[in-house]
């Protein structure tokens, strides 16, 4: 089995629609794909409706969190999307995304970059607006060559010149909320130092004690040494180890299935989940 548990669609900051994402996942030879858009579940229905035969969809989301001043992302799988407490928190985070992006546009304007809010809105195309949309605007304007190049201290990285904070959930609260909604939690790309400061291992240990299920080890932003260190940490803490592409369509160069999760780990995730269940494809439209 080939299993990719971290992918984005146009419901947040990917460039594939949810339907295109599942079709492309099947074409890439995946058996299981997870839809984990940022703080939203809006893409579920379209992905399920288009799900090809032979491909299984894991519903999820990537939750925006912050601990001790450090931004981090928590992958949540197979939770009940209508559970009131988690839904309210996701909406709070999502609602703060627009004024935050508008604030980044204002800062860029002050730096002499002629980006407009209308440009960012067009790029987001109704999705959950975020930094990658602003970064894409910088690419369009020729300010930076790629989206990744916008995530530096010169521009949009944490503490960067045009960075604006947004509401982010305390990860311990996020773990509690996801568990309350019957879901499973995995710390996304915990050693992605090029994105900014990373969470100390001591805090990851505290998160494990609070119910964190796993950490994403095999990821494009982790080098070989980081992966080896994270595998050792996961073993010490009794955490599951996942691998995922963090696919964003054409917004990033990584391909679907570039990194995958062991079938036994996937099986354990599905065993732990009670809020929702993987959806098998029946040959969608």
Keywords:
285 residues; alpha/beta; 8 strands; 8-stranded mixed β-sheet; single chain; globular
Notes on the protein architecture:
It is a single chain. The chain has 285 residues and is an alpha/beta fold. Helix content is 38%, strand content 15%. It contains eleven helices and eight strands. The chain has helices at 18-27, 44-49, 84-95, 97-110, 117-124, 131-140, 147-150, 171-180, 201-209, 224-237, 263-272; strands at 3-7, 32-35, 56-67, 70-77, 184-187, 214-218, 240-243, 279-280. The longest helix is centred in the middle third of the chain and has 14 residues, at 97-110. The chain is globular and about 50 Å long. It starts with a strand and ends in a 5-residue tail after the last strand. The relative contact order is 0.19. The mean pLDDT is 95.
Task: Indicate the percent of residues in helices.
Answer: 25-40%
Oligomeric state, counting identical vs distinct chains: single chain
What is the CA-based Rg, rounded?
A: 18 Å
Please trace the helix and strand order, writing H or E for each element.
EHEHEEHHHHHHEHEHEHE
Share of residues in strands: 15-25%
What is the element layout, followed by pairings?
Blueprint (H helix, E strand, L loop, with lengths): L2 E5 L10 H10 L4 E4 L8 H6 L6 E12 L2 E8 L6 H12 L1 H14 L6 H8 L6 H10 L6 H4 L20 H10 L3 E4 L13 H9 L4 E5 L5 H14 L2 E4 L19 H10 L6 E2 L5
Parallel strand pairs: 1-2, 2-3, 5-6, 6-7
Antiparallel strand pairs: 3-4, 3-8, 4-5
Helix pairs in contact: 5-6
